[in-house]
Structure formats: structure tokens, C-alpha cells
């Protein structure tokens, strides 16, 4: 354990919003040098949930944790976990798309190595020769090309 003396809670000065006729208990606590809420240095990372006593407490400092704080910690952990899963799913989709391009490139290359056959366009069944691509490619927008395929008559 740490032998340092416990730190005093910070005093947060509050304005008397309702005027001086209405007494706010929080303002009275501040005027006496106390904080509005109990101050804790523990970040409560290791929470224990006791169903019999219906309480939440920290295993590190052995103090009770307010239910709102425990809920907030759980929500933050879930948010971080879902963000990490979404990031991993995005990376996986990008890797799968890259792998599909690699497979298609390898198959085209293998087909062009054949001396008697050439690959055919899957849409118009015309032959695709490497000579057609030596001076560059004609490019279409992906959305436009997909729309043309959908509107093509069989």
C-alpha cells in the first residue's frame, strides 16, 4: 500500500444560482471545505458485484462504488470493445477484398500463359488478350459499371 497521506478533495466553488434565500446542501458542504460528492483517487478498475448484499465494490481499495459509476465503467468498456470489433471487421473486409483481387489476378495470369486458350469476358464472352492492355486500361466508375450490368438485357 502507499504510505502517502490521503489527498484532500478539491473544493469546487459554486455560484448561488437560486439566490441567498434558498439553501443548497451542496453549497453548505462547499462552504465548510467539503466537496459536493465524496472524493476518491481509485479508478475502480476491478469491480466486484455482490448479489447477496446488492452492492458494488472495488477489489483494489475495498470501497463501495456508486451504481452510476459502475454502470458508466461498464458502458465505457463495452464502447471500447465494440469499437475494436468494428475496426477488426473493417480490416478483415479490406483483406478479403484484396485477396479476391489477388486470386483474380493469378487466374488471369495463368489463363494468359496458356498457348492455345485466352480468358473470356464473363459478360460478353469475347476473348481478352494481354495485348489489349499493354497501352493502358479503359476505366469505368464501379457504380456505373454495376448499373450497366443490371440494365443489360439477356
Topology readout:
Blueprint lengths: L24 H7 L15 E4 L4 E4 L8 H47 L28 H10 L3
Antiparallel strand pairs: 1-2
Task: Outline the structure in words.
This protein has 154 residues and is mainly alpha-helical. The chain is built from three helices and two strands, in the order αββαα. Strands 1-2 form a two-stranded antiparallel sheet. A hairpin with a 4-residue loop joins β1 (47-50) and β2. The protein is elongated.
Q: Descriptors for this entry?
A:
single chain, 154 residues, mainly alpha, two-stranded antiparallel sheet
Overall form: elongated
Question: In what order do the strands lie side by side in the largest sheet?
Answer: 1-2
- Bin the strand percentage: 5-15%
Number of helices: 3
Residue stretches low in confidence (pLDDT < 50, at least 5 long) are none
Count of individual beta strands: 2
End-to-end Cα distance, whole Å, is 78 Å
Which sequence of SSEs, written as H and E, runs from N to C? HEEHH
* Radius of gyration based on Cα positions: 34 Å
- Sheet with the most strands, sense and barrel status: 2 strands, antiparallel
Name the structural class: mainly alpha
Mean residue pLDDT:
78
Q: Portion of residues in helices? A: 40-55%
Summary, kept brief:
By secondary structure, the protein is mainly alpha-helical. 42% of the residues lie in helices and 5% in strands. The protein is built from three helices and two strands, in the order H-E-E-H-H.
